[in-house]
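BUG: 3D viewer hangs when loading the predicted structure for this chain

Environment: internal workstation, default settings.
Expected: structure renders.
Actual: progress bar stalls at 90%.

Input used:
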Amino acid sequence: MVHISPATLGDLQPLIDLEKAIFTYDKISRRQFRYLLTEANGFMIKIENQEMLLGYMMLLRRKSSRNIRIYSICIRDEARNLGYGRRLLSYAEETAIADNCNSISLEVSVENIAAQRLYESVGFTAYGKKMNYYDDGGAALLLKKQLVCEDVTQ
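C-alpha cells produced before the viewer hung:
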C-alpha cells in the first residue's frame, strides 16, 4: 500500500539518503532540508510504502503570490514509471487549488526528457529557459501549469 502524506522532521535522514542516491549535483543539504521542513513558506510531501520512502516533493510559495513552485521532486530509481511522480503532482495541484493558488511552476533540466514528458502530460507548458542554471552548468526549462480555482466569493 502506497500513501502520500506531509513530510516531517522525523523524515530528515530518509530524505537525505534518497537525495544522495538520486542526484549527482545540486543536492539539498541536511541544513537545507531542515530549513525546508521547519521554516520555509511551503510544504514537503512524501510518498512511501511500508518498507521505504519512494519519493518526495518540496513546494514553496511566496506569501503574496498565488503561484506554488515545485522546488524539488525526487522518485527512487526502482519506483520510477509506476505513476508515483504523477500522484505527487496531482496531490500538489489539489493542495494548490485548495490554497487558492492559480498556477504551479518548476524548473527542469533541458536534458531530463522523461521528466519533461511527465510534466507536459499533466498540463505544464514551457515559458522560458535559464542558461547555466544547475551546478554542472546545465540549462533549465521553465514550466508552468495554470490552475482553475473556484471563486470562493460566490
